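Example 3.2
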Amino acid sequence: MKKISFCFLWIALGCMWASEMVAQEARYQVGVCDWMVLKRQKLGEFDLARQLGCDGVELDMGGLGQREAFDNQLRDDAQAARFHHVADSLGVKVGAVAMSGFYAQDLTKKDTYLSLADDCFDTMDKMGGVRVAFLPLGGCGNDWTTDKAKRKEIVRRLHEMGERAKARGKVIGLDTPLDARGNLKLLKEIKSQGIAIFYKFQTALECGVDICKDMQQLGAKKICAIHASNTDGRWLRNDSLIDLPAIRRTLDKMGWSGWLFVERSRDVSMVRNVKMNYGANVFTLREVFSTPVEATVKLNDEDRPADYVQTILSRAQKATDELSMTYTREGLNVRNIVANRYFQLNDIYAERDSLKKTDKKLAEAVADSKLYRSHFAFDADLLLRLRPDQVERVKDVMTFNVVKVTYDAQCDMIPSLKEEEKAQIMAWLKEARELAIDAESSKKKHEVFGKYKGRINNYLAKRGYDLTKEREEWYKRVKARGGKL
């Protein structure tokens, strides 16, 4: 009997431990704002969120402008059902629904504010019972914080909206220009449990306050969700003003849980590159707050020096950078596939060099056999995750983009090339690339291309081109336009 009781005790403790782990994993969830990733109310937002490694999205209600209602296609039950189905099938949640139209529209001048709120609540229900709505007060300007009459009207309207939210089991998260002290005063004036603060790192920094201290002063119960980003400029991982580990410790201490959405923090040098910007920021947030994004393709780095592995990973990442997918799960898979190919080539040539000591002919035969078989396996692995045109770009990166550089140079040098001649040149360059991919060093790769460049020159000479003259004229044209060769 005692043994049975002891077993049940262990089972109970195990269940409690498992439940605690699940709760810990679900404590923080990471998402992106659909209007910022250029997917406002588009079905593709859910697949993009999945690619970026998000737990979910902050779905927008659609544009507002001078209209009396949001441009909300989810008002249609059939369309809303499609959105909900796609999100559910991809395992992507709707963490909040945003009324971002109020970034530009003044709440005090929209007499339809209650119907707008109801439309938002209806959409939240259709998308699976979403609890948090986002309402920015940017359209009201900043004068309302000191203009007593305008502030009073904002407070009145927010109280009404908040009471409606509370009646439907929801909360409206405000985005204001205020710090914790100012927000607490505003919430006290509104007097509605249906209104809270949608906290924003950017606002705290603009107010000149410490994010951690500001959140603590505001309190966990007053924060319904977080926009975990700064203004555009640099990624979160490169932003010295945002100490994410310290923020995580503060939120843990406060007992807060909920959604962290990336709104901005885009690198200004690539501000339009959605996947790189949001992939990088989601990746960083997940590293600190959630389960890190991990590859499903195993990296074959066992028993290899750490510095060598890092060098190879950096080299492989150039391919995923080219595809703007480095900080996504699929990007990590592609990076590992490319890195594993480099490891494999290293192993093949190391074995060849070892065998050469006793039998050179056998060494070359073994290496050629392994290169041949593994070459097509590499293609197949990439094609499982990439489109054919993307595979082409990966191969170009691995061969220093010689195909494009050489082809463009040939066409620029001889403007009179016929289409069939251009096609032949490209065919040979791509053939060279297939061989160069398997070469053991950058020098050997360039040697492969060098042989094919010679073939191309012979071909063009036989076609009647005077290459010496063409090259001289080309030099003159390039120099005339201020370029160099």
